Write the structure tokens for this entry.
Amino acid sequence: MGTSRAARAPATKNWSKVITSLKPEHRNARAIAGTVFSVASTALGTIAPWSAPISYGASEGLRFISNVRTHGFQSAVRDESIRLTQQFVVPRISNGLWQVVASKMGPKIADSPFGRLAEYAFKKTLNGIMTKGLDAMEETR
Amino acid sequence: MTVDEATAEKNLKEFLEKRGRKGFLQLLLKNYLYELLMYYLHSGSSKPSVKEDTGFEFYVDRTGHAYTASQIEKFKKDLEAECLREAGEIIGEIERLEIIRKWDEGLLTDPAVTKLIQEAFEKIMKSIRG
């Protein structure tokens, strides 16, 4: 149910803590997030570069917005070799930037499950900022 | 929503003016943490150590009834807010390392920024969560 992109649970008995935390009597967002990150980071620490793809994304994103500040929006976009048309301006920019990120980290990380999650988060962030401005941040508060 | 180039530029500049790079990083990390969280909260069982799966528990209560759409939506919003808080902690570590300032002053190259952000991310996730 609702598991079309399902991960396998990390092979640790601690995962039962996550399942318990989802039961109605324990269903608290802070506790659940803490339990999931704790169990996942312990289980995955030496297995997968789960922090790598988002770090590449953060670095590239910072570089892009720095260029926007310094050289202006059009120049920053042009420097990334992104061709804009009348339509789909925002997704073209976020997609073009992710192509740069992916090329820097290489296909092994970019095509990993964490690479895909980072790609979604990266595009969602840039799309949100460029379409909603400040509301991109406010909507989760 | 269709946004033209001028509006995209205005929105981005407005965001940077008010929230700066720190705001960008916090939103990016929040979105990533939320994706990670949802990914694992939709995990299938990993036999033999785990008999149940989180994807089921996420949507169905102990009586076997599905939570209502509004209950699930509220739960997701709460999780998202929690990810924003967690992202704030990672940003605190990034600020402590003065990554953005050093980068502004040309003391760091892009790969160095990537490495430091990765270290900050892992340090926080291990020390606070571990």
Chain B touches chain A through 81 residues (CB under 8 Å).
